[in-house]
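Design request, tokens follow.
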């Protein structure tokens, strides 16, 4: 009779999902990589020139 019970399709409980790999924490926190994008420098302002004189001088 035992053979008939096993032949009836008795299933084991579902297996556990695959193990998640451990998260490795970097012990070298003092070594900070350089940023991926270069920081932008502020553009230079307009050149400083003395004010222009009048375009048309009346004599």
């Amino acid at each position: 009779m035992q053979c008939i019970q096993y032949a009836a399709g008795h299933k084991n409980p579902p297996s556990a999902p695959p193990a998640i790999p451990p998260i490795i924490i970097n012990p070298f926190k003092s070594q900070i990589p350089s940023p991926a994008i270069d920081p932008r420098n502020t553009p230079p302002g307009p050149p400083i020139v003395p004010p222009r004189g009048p375009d048309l001088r009346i004599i």
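Comment from the thread starter after seeing the answer: thanks! The chain has one helix and no strands.
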